[in-house]
Input
Amino acid sequence: MRIPAHSVCTAIRDDIVAGVYERGSRLTEELLARRYGVSRVPVREALRTLEAEGFVVTRRHAGACVAEPTEQEAADLLEMRMLLEPLGAARAAQRRTEAHLKVLRGLVRLGQERARRGNSDDLRSLGGWFHETLAQASGSPALTSTLAQLRHKIAWMYAVEAPAGPVESWAEHGGIVDAVARGDSERARTITALHTERATAAHRLRIPGRADRAERVRTSQHPVNITSLRL
Output
Protein backbone atom coordinates (compact mmCIF):
# COMPACT_ATOMS: atom_id res chain seq x y z
CA MET A 1 0.00 0.00 0.00
CA ARG A 2 1.36 3.42 -0.94
CA ILE A 3 1.60 5.69 2.09
CA PRO A 4 0.30 9.20 1.30
CA ALA A 5 2.89 11.96 1.37
CA HIS A 6 0.76 13.99 3.79
CA SER A 7 1.03 11.19 6.38
CA VAL A 8 4.80 11.12 6.02
CA CYS A 9 4.81 14.92 6.22
CA THR A 10 2.85 14.79 9.49
CA ALA A 11 5.26 12.24 10.95
CA ILE A 12 8.37 14.25 10.03
CA ARG A 13 6.82 17.51 11.24
CA ASP A 14 5.84 15.95 14.56
CA ASP A 15 9.38 14.66 15.04
CA ILE A 16 10.85 18.08 14.22
CA VAL A 17 8.52 19.72 16.75
CA ALA A 18 9.39 17.05 19.35
CA GLY A 19 13.10 17.72 18.89
CA VAL A 20 13.99 14.36 17.34
CA TYR A 21 15.85 16.22 14.59
CA GLU A 22 18.08 19.04 15.77
CA ARG A 23 17.84 22.43 14.16
CA GLY A 24 20.26 22.65 11.28
CA SER A 25 20.63 18.87 10.97
CA ARG A 26 20.45 17.17 7.58
CA LEU A 27 17.35 15.29 6.51
CA THR A 28 18.37 12.69 3.93
CA GLU A 29 15.67 11.00 1.90
CA GLU A 30 17.24 7.58 2.37
CA LEU A 31 17.34 7.73 6.17
CA LEU A 32 13.87 9.22 6.42
CA ALA A 33 12.43 6.59 4.11
CA ARG A 34 14.00 3.88 6.25
CA ARG A 35 12.75 5.40 9.50
CA TYR A 36 9.15 5.71 8.37
CA GLY A 37 9.04 2.54 6.32
CA VAL A 38 8.22 4.20 3.01
CA SER A 39 9.81 4.83 -0.37
CA ARG A 40 11.76 7.99 -1.10
CA VAL A 41 8.96 9.44 -3.27
CA PRO A 42 6.56 10.43 -0.43
CA VAL A 43 9.56 11.60 1.63
CA ARG A 44 10.62 13.92 -1.19
CA GLU A 45 7.08 15.31 -1.47
CA ALA A 46 6.86 15.73 2.31
CA LEU A 47 10.14 17.66 2.43
CA ARG A 48 8.89 20.06 -0.23
CA THR A 49 5.76 20.71 1.84
CA LEU A 50 7.76 21.20 5.03
CA GLU A 51 10.07 23.62 3.24
CA ALA A 52 7.05 25.67 2.14
CA GLU A 53 5.86 25.66 5.77
CA GLY A 54 9.23 26.85 7.06
CA PHE A 55 10.31 23.73 8.96
CA VAL A 56 12.91 22.70 6.37
CA VAL A 57 15.43 24.60 4.24
CA THR A 58 17.49 23.41 1.27
CA ARG A 59 21.18 24.26 1.51
CA ARG A 60 23.80 24.12 -1.18
CA HIS A 61 25.99 21.02 -0.89
CA ALA A 62 23.90 19.78 2.07
CA GLY A 63 20.38 19.32 0.74
CA ALA A 64 17.36 19.37 3.03
CA CYS A 65 18.05 20.50 6.61
CA VAL A 66 15.93 21.40 9.61
CA ALA A 67 15.39 25.16 9.67
CA GLU A 68 17.06 27.36 12.29
CA PRO A 69 14.61 30.18 13.01
CA THR A 70 15.88 33.33 14.68
CA GLU A 71 14.49 34.78 17.90
CA GLN A 72 12.84 37.54 15.87
CA GLU A 73 11.12 35.00 13.65
CA ALA A 74 9.89 33.18 16.74
CA ALA A 75 8.57 36.42 18.24
CA ASP A 76 6.80 37.22 14.97
CA LEU A 77 4.89 33.93 15.22
CA LEU A 78 3.38 34.89 18.57
CA GLU A 79 2.44 38.31 17.23
CA MET A 80 0.80 36.76 14.17
CA ARG A 81 -1.22 34.42 16.35
CA MET A 82 -2.36 37.34 18.52
CA LEU A 83 -3.71 38.99 15.37
CA LEU A 84 -5.24 35.94 13.69
CA GLU A 85 -6.87 34.10 16.62
CA PRO A 86 -9.27 37.02 17.32
CA LEU A 87 -10.04 37.29 13.60
CA GLY A 88 -10.88 33.59 13.51
CA ALA A 89 -13.20 33.95 16.50
CA ALA A 90 -14.98 36.91 14.88
CA ARG A 91 -15.47 34.94 11.68
CA ALA A 92 -16.68 31.92 13.69
CA ALA A 93 -19.41 34.08 15.22
CA GLN A 94 -20.67 34.73 11.70
CA ARG A 95 -20.18 31.31 10.12
CA ARG A 96 -20.23 28.60 12.80
CA THR A 97 -22.53 25.63 12.49
CA GLU A 98 -24.46 23.85 15.22
CA ALA A 99 -21.96 21.01 14.94
CA HIS A 100 -19.12 23.41 15.72
CA LEU A 101 -20.99 24.78 18.73
CA LYS A 102 -21.68 21.28 20.04
CA VAL A 103 -17.98 20.38 19.94
CA LEU A 104 -16.86 23.70 21.41
CA ARG A 105 -19.33 23.47 24.29
CA GLY A 106 -18.30 19.89 24.99
CA LEU A 107 -14.63 20.89 25.15
CA VAL A 108 -15.43 23.80 27.46
CA ARG A 109 -17.35 21.49 29.83
CA LEU A 110 -14.45 19.03 29.92
CA GLY A 111 -11.87 21.78 30.37
CA GLN A 112 -13.76 23.51 33.14
CA GLU A 113 -14.35 20.24 34.96
CA ARG A 114 -10.69 19.24 34.86
CA ALA A 115 -9.55 22.74 35.79
CA ARG A 116 -11.78 22.75 38.88
CA ARG A 117 -10.45 19.34 39.93
CA GLY A 118 -6.89 20.45 39.44
CA ASN A 119 -6.33 17.78 36.79
CA SER A 120 -4.07 19.68 34.43
CA ASP A 121 -2.54 16.72 32.57
CA ASP A 122 -4.81 16.98 29.54
CA LEU A 123 -5.78 20.67 29.71
CA ARG A 124 -3.19 21.59 27.09
CA SER A 125 -4.50 19.09 24.56
CA LEU A 126 -8.08 20.14 25.27
CA GLY A 127 -7.06 23.75 24.71
CA GLY A 128 -5.44 22.81 21.42
CA TRP A 129 -8.59 21.03 20.25
CA PHE A 130 -10.68 24.00 21.31
CA HIS A 131 -8.68 26.50 19.27
CA GLU A 132 -8.46 24.15 16.31
CA THR A 133 -12.25 23.74 16.29
CA LEU A 134 -12.73 27.49 16.71
CA ALA A 135 -10.52 28.08 13.67
CA GLN A 136 -12.48 25.52 11.65
CA ALA A 137 -15.70 27.29 12.64
CA SER A 138 -14.38 30.44 10.92
CA GLY A 139 -15.32 28.86 7.60
CA SER A 140 -11.99 29.94 6.12
CA PRO A 141 -9.70 27.08 5.04
CA ALA A 142 -6.82 29.51 4.50
CA LEU A 143 -7.14 30.96 8.01
CA THR A 144 -7.56 27.50 9.54
CA SER A 145 -4.43 26.23 7.76
CA THR A 146 -2.38 29.28 8.73
CA LEU A 147 -3.35 28.99 12.40
CA ALA A 148 -2.53 25.27 12.39
CA GLN A 149 0.94 26.00 11.01
CA LEU A 150 1.43 28.71 13.63
CA ARG A 151 0.50 26.30 16.42
CA HIS A 152 3.00 23.71 15.15
CA LYS A 153 5.81 26.24 14.86
CA ILE A 154 5.09 27.81 18.24
CA ALA A 155 5.11 24.36 19.88
CA TRP A 156 8.49 23.77 18.19
CA MET A 157 10.08 27.04 19.28
CA TYR A 158 8.50 27.62 22.70
CA ALA A 159 7.99 25.79 25.97
CA VAL A 160 4.66 26.68 27.58
CA GLU A 161 4.31 27.00 31.34
CA ALA A 162 1.15 25.67 32.97
CA PRO A 163 -1.38 28.52 33.27
CA ALA A 164 -1.45 30.13 36.71
CA GLY A 165 -5.26 30.25 36.63
CA PRO A 166 -6.66 27.33 34.61
CA VAL A 167 -10.19 27.96 35.94
CA GLU A 168 -10.08 31.55 34.70
CA SER A 169 -8.57 30.44 31.40
CA TRP A 170 -11.42 28.01 30.76
CA ALA A 171 -13.94 30.62 31.83
CA GLU A 172 -12.54 32.72 28.99
CA HIS A 173 -13.02 29.79 26.63
CA GLY A 174 -16.63 29.63 27.76
CA GLY A 175 -17.05 33.36 27.14
CA ILE A 176 -15.71 32.97 23.62
CA VAL A 177 -18.20 30.20 22.86
CA ASP A 178 -21.10 32.23 24.28
CA ALA A 179 -20.18 35.16 22.02
CA VAL A 180 -19.80 32.87 19.01
CA ALA A 181 -23.17 31.23 19.73
CA ARG A 182 -24.87 34.67 19.88
CA GLY A 183 -23.24 35.76 16.65
CA ASP A 184 -21.49 38.63 18.47
CA SER A 185 -18.33 39.06 16.38
CA GLU A 186 -16.87 41.97 18.29
CA ARG A 187 -17.35 40.29 21.67
CA ALA A 188 -15.78 37.08 20.36
CA ARG A 189 -12.86 39.07 18.95
CA THR A 190 -12.31 41.01 22.19
CA ILE A 191 -12.37 38.04 24.55
CA THR A 192 -10.14 35.99 22.25
CA ALA A 193 -7.63 38.84 22.01
CA LEU A 194 -7.39 39.08 25.80
CA HIS A 195 -7.18 35.31 26.15
CA THR A 196 -4.43 35.00 23.53
CA GLU A 197 -2.44 37.85 25.08
CA ARG A 198 -2.51 36.17 28.50
CA ALA A 199 -1.59 32.79 27.04
CA THR A 200 1.34 34.32 25.17
CA ALA A 201 2.89 35.46 28.46
CA ALA A 202 3.37 31.80 29.45
CA HIS A 203 5.60 31.04 26.43
CA ARG A 204 9.35 30.68 26.94
CA LEU A 205 11.70 30.44 23.97
CA ARG A 206 13.44 27.07 23.68
CA ILE A 207 17.22 27.35 23.55
CA PRO A 208 18.74 24.57 21.39
CA GLY A 209 21.12 22.40 23.38
CA ARG A 210 19.44 22.72 26.77
CA ALA A 211 19.11 19.55 28.82
CA ASP A 212 15.32 19.37 28.60
CA ARG A 213 15.55 19.35 24.82
CA ALA A 214 18.20 16.64 24.86
CA GLU A 215 15.93 14.53 27.02
CA ARG A 216 13.10 14.86 24.48
CA VAL A 217 15.45 13.66 21.75
CA ARG A 218 16.57 10.62 23.74
CA THR A 219 13.04 9.55 24.58
CA SER A 220 11.74 10.07 21.04
CA GLN A 221 14.17 7.79 19.19
CA HIS A 222 11.80 5.07 18.08
CA PRO A 223 10.47 4.07 14.66
CA VAL A 224 7.21 5.67 13.70
CA ASN A 225 4.37 3.21 13.26
CA ILE A 226 3.19 4.56 9.95
CA THR A 227 0.02 2.49 10.08
CA SER A 228 -1.13 4.48 13.10
CA LEU A 229 -1.09 7.74 11.15
CA ARG A 230 -4.36 9.23 9.99
CA LEU A 231 -4.60 8.35 6.29
Notes: The two ends are 11 Å apart (CA to CA). Residues 211-231 have pLDDT under 50 and may be disordered. Strands lie at 56-59, 63-66, 158-160, 203-205. The first helix runs from residue 5 to 18.
